[in-house]
Amino acid sequence: MGLVSIISLSIIGLIIKDVTGLPCLTDESKTKFEATRKALKYLQTSVDNRIRTLQNDIKSKVKKIDDDMGSLVSDFQKRQWKKYNSDCYYYGSDTLSWFKAEQRCKQIGGHLAKIDDEAENKWVKDNRSKKDNYWIGLTDLKEGEWRWSYDQTLAKY
């Protein structure tokens, strides 16, 4: 029973107590009281049914979201994606030039990896699917000046 049901029962209880405490009620007053009591009970039942329906609807939607999340995680893992800290890494199996790899990353909504420290560099190397070579987002378009393609900052690591 929800909060609304408890409040409705309390109101009905107070009305019954007040009405039965009045000895001089006319038949018409008793009839009106009984009709009001029935209307309140009907309203209470309607509210209870609506609450149950909403609860079931919410449970159903939460279950669907949970199922969808499970599918998403499974799909994420099947598609060669791996997560490190707050970043996701895609390890593709295509042999591409650096420029083609950068283009491919942009097509799927990302960029070649910008590696910030030794720990991340080790993780990227250790988590590749095969012991092949891989591209990161470091470029020296201006000879001798290494910059990250993602944001053009100078490489610090």
TrEMBL record:
Gene3D superfamilies: Mannose-Binding Protein A, subunit A. InterPro entries: C-type_lectin-like (IPR001304), C-type_lectin-like/link_sf (IPR016186), C-type_lectin/snaclec_domain (IPR050111), CTDL_fold (IPR016187). Residues 84-157 form the C-type lectin domain. SUPFAM superfamilies: C-type lectin-like. Residues 1-21 form the signal peptide. Keywords: Signal. The keyword Signal applies. This is C-type lectin domain-containing protein. It comes from Mytilus galloprovincialis. The lineage of its organism: Eukaryota, Metazoa, Spiralia, Lophotrochozoa, Mollusca.
